[in-house]
Amino acid sequence: MLNLLRTDLYRVFRSKSFYICFGILVFINIVTFGILFIITNPSTRDLILQFGAELSADASDIESSLANTTILEIFRQGTVSGGFLSVTTGVFGALFICMDFESGFIKNIMAAHENKWDYVLGKAGTFFIVNFLYLTGTFLVTLLLNIISGGFFEYSGLEDILYYLFSAWVIVNAFSALIMLICMITRSKAAGVAGAICLNSGLVVMILSSVFGLFGLGWIFDYSLYLTLASLPSAFQGEYGLRPFITGAAFFVLYTVISEIVLAKKDI
Fold it and tell me: pLDDT, tens digit, for every residue of 35-52?
């Protein structure tokens, strides 16, 4: 498994898709930070108003609503809660896994590693590292932007940052396991990418939640990966703060076990 992990990491850092996906996340981060900085800073806000821009709220409402905004909240709203992070990592995961099937590389892997768990856990370990790099890298971009702006937004406490990043990482890892399962079943790049867009973005969950809500069952989806990620607390809050870890770990185990079963039963 460790040999597969090293091989996958070598392929990851030599692939263009890894850097393209990271670049997309960085771009989204910069845009989010820039928009919030412009509308919150009185001088820049007045400047864009002079050029014909229109704001739906007046200056006092904007300043009061964003008065206590921290860099963690900016990162959360711009990258994590909306599903950009989980979708981007899911798309990368789909492209990376399906490349094994399209190129026939998986046949060579299975010839050397008969135990299917080696392949599944090797891929999971790769996604652990990739997701960690994406998550921490994009947050450091937000931190750097705030430093460049002279610390315009408040800095979050180190404990809050570590808690939020780690809990988000656990859930995003479960999303990657879901995409891996889709790719194991379909072996289709298109299906994997579509799954990342529809499932990781919360589109399917929100539709089903609305339908089930008509029968009073909408609460079931409060335990889904998407809503758990979207509602992550910015600080540890007792037992409720453990919910992201439990939910993410449970779904990760479920999806990886099913992935191994599917890989073992289907012909390579």
Answer: 887 777 666 655 555 544
